[in-house]
Amino acid sequence: MTIVHPVLEDLIGLLGLERIEENIFRGDSRDIGSPQVFGGQVIGQALSAAQHTVDGRVAHSLHAYFLRRGDVNAPIIYEVDRSRDGGSFSNRRVVAIQHGRPILNLAASFQNPEAGLEHHAVKPEVPGPDGLKDLTDVAKDMLEHIPSKLRRFLTDKRPFEFRHVEPVNFEVPRTLPPKKHVWIRAVDKLPDDPVLHQNLLTYVSDYELLGTATLPHGLSFTRGSVIMASLDHALWFHSEVRMDEWLLYAMDSPSSSGARGFTRGQLFTESGTLIASTAQEGLMRVVDPDDWKPRSKPGAQK
Question: pLDDT value at position 287?
């Protein structure tokens, strides 16, 4: 199957990895405008490395810790430990290494597909993707208010569409409830490869998530008043994923404390099936409290 969109094709190649030895793989990086290698890229590549060592079993969960910033100008080496292959489940541990030091640890579990009891959460009642603006279009409308170093991150062509249900405001942050809903879809049709779709979901699951924890505090990473970095990331696959169909990413943040924000996410199909869940904790450190002031009481919307 031919993928016509070059940015999406490049991402697929990026997640594919190069096998350089048994259980050792190498991946390149892409500079998307962030200060370091995008965390979703490292997690997606680490899962891909683990998948290269598993036959006939499908990933159902992964848990990762970010240890150091990744260097976009250097390749990343992934070392896989084949921890266990049982009767139904396989477990893999992956270490991502740059410049001789680990930058990420990941554990992933795989299962033989089997039927069982089923239930899932109900999709939130929010507007569908039709009629909503893509994030790049929203950013273009506010370019003069966005710091120059962030313009490329927000306006470059991406392998995914992002359509926010709630209005996006890069100018004057307001205190809002710690919830966010974003429709996500790949920009082109994809091959019928379940492993590829899982890798792409892993990659995109790091977008938008941690920022949910800033909403009750009237903070914005675009104003430079807060330092944010993912500390860990967990992902559970509940059913088959298709990234070339609309998915609703429903996110919330039940807590922030100790200069850390905790966030959760659920991904639903347009028809309402819950296909994956995420959780993440990240550094959320105010650089200078005098640089920001809440515009309204927590929970208020204007």
Answer: 78
If one looks up domain 6-112+132-291 in CATH, what number appears? Answer: 2.40.160.210
Total residues belonging to the chain: 302
Mean of the per-residue pLDDT values of the chain:
88
pLDDT digits (tens, 9 = 90+) for 147-201: 665 666 666 778 999 999 998 776 667 889 999 999 999 999 999 999 999 999 9
Within 8 A by CB and 6+ apart from 272, the residues are: 122, 123
Active site residue 280: yes
Encode pLDDT of 185-243 as tens digits: 999 999 999 999 999 999 999 998 999 999 998 876 555 678 889 999 999 999 999 99
Q: Which residues are within 8 A (CB) of 194 and not within 5 positions of it... i.e. 6 or more apart?
A: 58, 240, 241
Q: What are the domain boundaries of the chain?
A: 6-112+132-291
Order of all β-strands in the sheet with 160-164: 18-21, 24-27, 76-85, 89-98, 101-111, 58-66, 226-237, 274-286, 260-269, 247-257, 179-186, 160-164
Rounded (10°) angle between helices 39-51 and 194-204: 150
CA distance 53 to 23: 7
* Active-site annotation holds for 206: yes
Options 29, 90, 109, 206, the catalytic residue: 206
Active-site residue, from 41, 109, 198, 230:
230
Note if 90 is an active site residue: no
